[in-house]
Design a protein that fits this description.
Layout lengths: L15 H12 L26 H9 L17 H8 L5
């Protein structure tokens, strides 16, 4: 079920864009069980609970980000989200 705040105003069902996004997100295998390390950049800061690039990368690929929109990562951590934005040419 799509959260209420993502629904098109005045309707009970999600709008077509929201429904497409929800379907795409639901189709992702979020375990990333078969993933392989993408680059040596991941080895710079080894930490067992580190954010793998596949998570922000998948979200950046699925979510509609308007041109000239910057992605804010207020917690930054090791910069995984920022690196994935740079790989996709998205402003940060």
């Amino acid at each position: 079920m799509v959260p209420q705040h993502n629904r098109v105003r005045g309707t009970q069902e999600p709008g077509p864009v929201v429904a497409d996004i929800a379907a795409a997100l639901n189709a992702v295998d979020w375990s990333f069980a078969g993933r392989k390390r993408l680059s040596e950049l991941e080895a710079i800061h080894p930490y067992p609970a580190k954010f793998i690039p596949d998570i922000p990368g998948t979200l950046l690929d699925i979510l509609p980000i308007p041109p000239d929109t910057a992605v804010l990562d207020p917690f930054v951590g090791s910069g995984t989200t920022l690196v994935e934005c740079q790989r996709r040419g998205i402003l940060t």
